[in-house]
Design a protein that fits this description.
The protein is an alpha+beta fold. About 35% of the residues lie in helices and about 15% in strands. The strands form 3 sheets. The chain has a 4-stranded antiparallel β-sheet, sandwiched between helices. A two-stranded antiparallel ribbon has the order 1-4. The site of flavin mononucleotide has 9 residues, from strand 7 and helix 8.
């Protein structure tokens, strides 16, 4: 069976045409009261398979990756806004290990995040054992460029590059790799939500991501495959700080036209 091909079980298909209506690639048409594909390739978004009332459509090689929707799945809008409002970047972590199942749930949030053209190009490097060794490499990179940054930025001058400048002694960091940076960042955001829903605190380390992109040695140590780049790095752990209120923000800037 050709991996990654849309398959229609004509024995189950009732020719309702729902698949053809939602297919963004116009790959499914009804002929003789049965659905069938008309293209060699599509983006394999799987919407046809997800909408079919008779479970007649599958993607070869991905048959076991579907879960029935347990009724309406909807978050409380106010709770979602509060989660966004009260989340803070965490730079002070408890020295408590993050359970394996929690890490797996966070990775699952990343894996399931939508990608442009359904590229599904996002992968992950979980740093635990090797975290300090990798951080040391990034510290070296930043110490080399710091004198230049100091020339231009008073904030850089105040910011010492300590041994834990990137990961703040957190128990865990996850480097999100992607071909398309936007895809990686979207995955990172969903992973942050999943982490916070588990009581974890998160920091986006743009600085570590920058160091990894600047250093072939770091990318090699992380095992970044050809064609992919570090898109974002999440630093995670149980927070050792409690914020009591939301932080002040700029006013909404919006134009309705
Ligand atoms: C893309 C991105 C990269 C960031 N990189 C870093 C970083 O390398 N180091 C750091 O201490 N904070 C980093 N931050 C945290 C921001 O400085 C922080 O979000 C901002 O100060 C607002 O604080 P808050 O997240 O608590 O609202 C990053 C945030 C984002 C969104």
């Amino acid at each position: 069976m050709k991996q990654g091909k849309v398959m229609v079980d004509t024995g189950k298909c009732i020719g309702c045409g729902l698949c053809g209506r939602i297919c963004p690639a116009h790959n499914l048409e009804i002929k003789n009261k049965k659905a069938g594909t008309v293209l060699e390739r599509c983006i394999l978004c799987g919407q046809c398979s997800a909408v079919c009332p008779k479970k007649a459509i599958s993607i070869a090689g991905r048959e076991n990756d579907q879960i029935e929707k347990p009724g309406e799945v909807r978050l409380d809008p106010g709770a979602v806004l509060d989660a966004i409002r009260f989340r803070r970047s965490i730079r002070d972590f408890r020295q408590t290990e993050v359970p394996r199942e929690m890490i797996e749930q966070i990775l699952e949030a990343g894996r399931l995040t939508h990608t442009a053209k359904n590229l599904q190009d996002v992968s992950f490097v979980v740093l635990q054992r090797e975290k300090d060794r990798i951080e040391e490499m990034a510290v070296k990179v930043f110490k080399t460029v710091k004198p230049i940054a100091d020339l231009f930025s008073p904030m850089a001058r105040k910011n010492e590059i300590t041994d834990h400048f990137f990961f703040f002694n957190a128990p865990l960091a996850i480097v999100v790799l992607a071909k398309d940076k936007t895809n990686g960042i979207l995955a990172a955001q969903n992973m942050e939500f999943a982490a916070e829903a588990n009581g974890l605190g998160v920091l986006y380390s743009g600085f570590f991501t920058m160091a990894a992109n600047a250093s072939r040695r770091i990318r090699k140590a992380l095992g970044v495959p050809k064609g992919k780049k570090p898109a974002m790095t999440l630093v995670l752990g149980y927070p050792n700080v409690e914020f009591l209120r939301s932080a002040p923000h700029k006013e909404l800037s919006v134009r309705y036209m």
